[in-house]
Amino acid sequence: MGTLKPESEAGQIALREERHQYILELLGREGRVLAADLSSRYGVSEDTIRRDLRELASSGKIQRVHGGALPRRAEAVPFVSRQQIDTESKIGIARAAAAMIRDRQVVLIDGGTTNLRIASYLSRERSATIVTNSPPLALALADHPKLSVLMLGGNFLKEARVTTGIETIRQVESIRADLCFLGMCSLHPEVGITVGDREEAYVKQAMIGASTEVVGLISLGKMGTSLPYLVGPASRLTRLITDASGEDVLDPYRSQGIEVTST
Amino acid sequence: MGTLKPESEAGQIALREERHQYILELLGREGRVLAADLSSRYGVSEDTIRRDLRELASSGKIQRVHGGALPRRAEAVPFVSRQQIDTESKIGIARAAAAMIRDRQVVLIDGGTTNLRIASYLSRERSATIVTNSPPLALALADHPKLSVLMLGGNFLKEARVTTGIETIRQVESIRADLCFLGMCSLHPEVGITVGDREEAYVKQAMIGASTEVVGLISLGKMGTSLPYLVGPASRLTRLITDASGEDVLDPYRSQGIEVTST
DNA sequence: TTGGTTATACGCGTATATACGCATATTATC
DNA sequence: GATAATATGCGTATATACGCGTATAACCAA
After folding, report:
1. What is the CATH number of the domain that holds B65?
2. Smallest CA–CA separation between A12 and chain B, in Å?
3. What pLDDT digit, counting tens, does each position of B150-170 carry?
């Protein structure tokens, strides 16, 4: 570090890569970062921040501007862009999921882009009760005439576009669902179901507990990966719908008693 | 920066590029921008805004005109904005409403298209807690970095795109808000606040009870009308924001002790 | 037209932001 | 533990952005 760094507040972030990571994350969340702000936030000199920003800019990850940086593409809308990834395979998965829903069932549907697509493939003739913590899903169901939609309240998690927290969990716990479509961030046969947010993990646990059948919709890319927060073992799922194929990938789940549907 | 940086409210947009983006975005939404308006909105001098506009104009992105700017192609916007009836007046109302929100406040925002627009005019610098029963509003707030959003759960009413019912009411009752923007379906000085759905009426009653200040946003067309279900007398409102003008229309409300803001 | 109001342009001073070179601290490597 | 490779902070020079004062130009109503 510098010639002398007498003290540095609390938030000292010593490693360059770590700072880069945080900067990108913050940028994604706030839509802009200020050099001076980052400096005081991470307890390093503005000079260092500027070097960081220069590096991130030259590798094309951010757009450098006077005073700070902006996302490379105007309005890096994390959700919209994510929505368009994987569309091909997600359609098949969502369609298979929608076909599972029967009349009069109470169905818990978690957030996530794949689950959101279920709405598009749900028959307009189907009459069921859909319970969800995803405002986008509720909206997508708004023109399904025969569905009853229960929106779960709670803290709105902006990145994932779902509600979380104690209110959400309480409401879930007061429900007995026939079917639950769990949003899958990542799934690993041994590690289990994991997500990137603690609050989300709790909500998912509650959903699993509230439903007779628990279905995971997951595309190949997310299988075999893991994230910081554990929801539970893979065996909490009763069924898996995926575009993955091949015995080597799917057997570890089948051997845990999970029904696997490959689209 | 300038010789002296007096202060700048909250809405300060520090980065030049960022302002450029916002200006373009706003231009796309409203079909025109005014220099003076941009100045107060972004908390920078008109001079700076003019420089911005000059730059955008010289790079061909906008058409500079006296007092502000227009989209480069005359037909670029009209259809989109004309599609939304009485957008013009709603913009003024929503903007006035957004300006009422202060840092750290807890603000209840009801559903409705006018209320939804508040999101667009809320400064990205504002840090407040927004409580709403409107999934579209929650989504619209998703990229306001400093806001905390609490989504009220409940039965999702498809036509109005809001949640209702006992769950919603219970959650509202557990909250003490500084400010409440009540969605106005119709308002009559003697009949009072009325809506077309029974459940909605109950939710609005709860919202009124949970908030210190109750603000109604209403366009001229809805004033003096009434609907089947009564929420309460007009005097439950502490303030009215409207595009209506004329003493004959507004005085009946003023005489009930309601502050009236005419945009 | 004319006169007033408002918007704009220009130059300047100043506050910031940035780049660069160098000394020092930290980390990695042997 | 010594040495090399980075990373960081600071001083300094320079560039940029901004706000203000003032002069000019465009608009608007009699």
Report:
1. 1.10.10.10
2. 23
3. 999 999 999 999 999 999 999
